[in-house]
Design brief:
The protein has four helices and four strands, in the order H-E-E-H-E-E-H-H. With 132 residues, the protein is of the alpha+beta class. The longest helix has 16 residues. It is flat.
């Protein structure tokens, strides 16, 4: 808008169109889906690579049911693929938590976490503190 047009609008009492000064907020439209398990409506982001058929709660319920089925019955070995190295490993179905990593990868991960987040070594002993 030119300066002269702004002055004319100001004196005429008409509000000036100030679309340039106020940025328009554009929201991404979320897609609404209905869960095939419970019928609940949930929203998904269109940028996702796939469109889920079940809500988050139903997926968690399915995972719990699958693990309970694996635990049921007699004692046996369960075979899984390690998420880190891709090798297969076995463990008994009596464990309270099923591992996702083989024992070697688990040990390496724990050592890395101790090194990163472990407590610093305190070089002073109780005897040195008592001699002060």
């Amino acid at each position: 808008m030119k300066l002269i047009d702004k002055i004319k609008n100001w004196f005429s009492g008409k509000p000036a169109a100030e679309t340039a000064s106020q940025p328009q907020v554009r929201e991404t439209a979320k897609i609404k889906r209905t869960c095939k398990g419970c019928g609940k409506t949930f929203s998904i982001d269109p940028s996702w690579e796939f469109i889920p058929n079940y809500c988050k709660e139903c997926k968690q319920k399915f995972a719990r049911e699958k693990e309970e089925k694996q635990r049921a019955g007699s004692r046996r070995q369960i075979r899984r693929k390690c998420r880190n190295c891709g090798k297969f490993f076995t463990f008994p179905n009596t464990l309270p938590h099923y591992p996702n990593y083989c024992s070697n990868c688990r040990k390496a991960h724990q050592a890395a976490m101790k090194e990163k987040y472990g407590r610093p070594v305190n070089r002073k002993t109780k005897q040195d503190a008592g001699n002060r």
